[in-house]
Write a sequence for this structure.
């Protein structure tokens, strides 16, 4: 299975050639559960399932062409109760995803946190349509 780093070259061509249904799929970290979408206008959209987390305990950064999301708090529960089943976990995490600043407007990133769903939208840069290429004789 290819990792994200193995497929960087493919990723660049993906953004250059446009997005289609038959594009290569990239692996994302397994936690937190996340959807990564490219919207019709070319914007990149992330949806993170973070039920049980507080938005104040999340840190979002952009560094070296990567969107970084992590927790700033350790969510270990202290209880004297004994669990019969424990299926809900809130581990500390570090998430990163490649977002090239040559293709997206990082300064216009929009994030919202509602009902345990963190949504991040990063607008696509507009293409220069009035570009003229000259040849040299």
């Amino acid at each position: 299975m290819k990792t994200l780093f193995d497929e960087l070259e493919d990723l660049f061509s993906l953004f250059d050639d446009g997005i289609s249904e038959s594009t290569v799929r990239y692996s994302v970290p397994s936690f937190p559960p996340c959807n990564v979408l490219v919207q019709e206008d070319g914007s990149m959209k992330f949806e993170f399932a973070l039920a049980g987390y507080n938005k104040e305990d999340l840190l979002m950064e952009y560094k070296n062409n990567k969107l970084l999301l992590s927790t700033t708090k350790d969510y270990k529960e202290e209880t004297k109760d004994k669990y019969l089943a424990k299926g809900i976990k809130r581990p500390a995490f570090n998430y990163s995803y490649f977002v090239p600043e040559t293709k997206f407007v990082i300064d216009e990133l929009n994030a919202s946190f509602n009902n345990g769903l963190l949504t991040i939208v990063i607008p696509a840069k507009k293409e220069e349509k009035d570009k003229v290429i000259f040849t040299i004789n």
Summary: Residues 17-26 have pLDDT under 50 and may be disordered.
